[in-house]
Amino acid sequence: MSRGTATRHVLPAAASVVLFALAWPIVRFGLQDLEAQTLVDAAEPADLQSSSARVRWLEQSVEQGDNETLRREALRLLQESPLHGVAYRALALLAERNGDPVLAAQLFRIAVRRTPRDEFARAWLADQAAASGDWPAVVQHTDALLRVSRRSVTELFDALIATASHPEGLSALVQVLGDQAPPWRGSFLRRLVREAPLALVDAVLAPLRRAPQPLSTAQRDLWVDRLVREGEGARAYFLWIEDLPEVQQRDLRNVFDGGFELAAGNSGFGWRFDRIAGASVDRRFVAGAGGKTALLIDFHGQRVAFQHVRQRLALMPGEYQLSGRARPEGLQNERGLQWRLRCESGTALGETARFTGHSDWREFDTRFTVPVEGCASQWLQLYLAGRIPAERWASGRIWFDDLRISRIQPGG
């Protein structure tokens, strides 16, 4: 990230015009001048008779005020309030205008020590740090900006993503994210996962799994979804199971919680139960269930485009059998309810027979094949087979239990 690029990203447009487009007269001063200069003979604007008025004027000095007035009022403010950061910011700006970036940097650093929320001074220092390759300093100042800035954070996030491409910047960024979990972390990680190359996403997020402030479940799921989109279903699956309780890790199968004993997590490779008007999804005890609960779908006697129970899978290429048990109770629909399997891309893999009517528990199964190419992850989904609105009216209910997917061995 060049200095010019970072300035355009971090500083307001009007400030960039002032800093780089105007020709300013030479006005030299040093740090030792701050106490010596008084300028008591200069004419003082009528509205700058108090320190508070002078502060307000200097706060706007980036976009207005000639050099001599700017310098005079900054020095007068320092006489009245020697620790006020805005005065140092104004003097730093003059040094920048006059081609003395070393002095400007010294003064801007004083400004942010005196006034940590000074956005302009922080932005200038972040820009200078980027120009000199001081990536930890870029992270430090950008972190401070993100905590106080009222402007759009998009450019600041982009600056951090660019900074993370350098080893020193990556280390500094991960430390801030993992040790402090700053308030902007969630928004930044969403943008990182959405926009950055996968290798950079991995480099930032992997250390955060064991950081003092580790990734939240929602943040981990962003990573899981990105891996799935990149066709890395197996990596996504193993990342997801890392956070499962040990007892659940010991009983992992191709269908997670096929007995519907756990609350739906609605993420990763667990069950997702979505809400929809016209039907309800629940887990309840019922006679004949294999465990304590089974899945219950209750239709309310109206049209409903039901497809709201699903689970993402991570099956390797090969032949499989989906099996389970169903118990319909007065289920009425023109075409029936069924389980279907498809690749993440949407390619159909198979579906079960349709369920309607009324019966005791009965077993069902269907075979399907996961292709070698283009199907690194899949979906198992329960849906009404209605194709048009008239076929989507449904009433009654149905139970499901003991869903499992078994690999079919060659010749089986």
Quickly describe the structure.
With 412 residues, this protein is α+β, with helices and mostly antiparallel strands. Helices cover 42% and strands 20% of the residues. The longest helix is centred in the N-terminal third of the chain and has 14 residues, at 67-80.
How would you portray this structure in words?
- The chain is an alpha+beta fold and 412 residues long.
- Helices cover 42% and strands 20% of the residues.
- The protein contains 16 helices and ten strands.
- A five-stranded antiparallel β-sheet has the order 1-4-9-6-7, with no helix packed on it. The protein has a five-stranded antiparallel β-sheet with strand order 2-3-10-5-8, with no helix packed on it.
- Strand 6 and strand 7 form a beta hairpin.
- Helix 5 (67-80) runs antiparallel to helix 6 and helix 8 (119-132) runs antiparallel to helix 9 (135-148).
- The longest helix is centred in the N-terminal third of the chain and has 14 residues, at 67-80.
- Residues 1-51 have low confidence and may be disordered.
Tell me the number of helical segments per DSSP (H or I, 4 or more residues long): 16
Mean pLDDT: 82
Distance between the termini: 59 Å
Report Rg. Answer: 32 Å
Main β-sheet description = 5 strands, antiparallel
| Spatial order of strands in the largest sheet | 1-4-9-6-7
Element order: H for helix, E for strand: HHHHHHHHHHHHHHHHEEEEEEEEEE
Question: Into which percentage range does the β-strand content fall?
Answer: 15-25%
> Percent helix among the residues?
40-55%
Number of strands: 10
Query: Can you tell me the overall shape?
Result: elongated
Helix/strand/pairing class, anyone? alpha+beta
The low-pLDDT segments are: 1-51
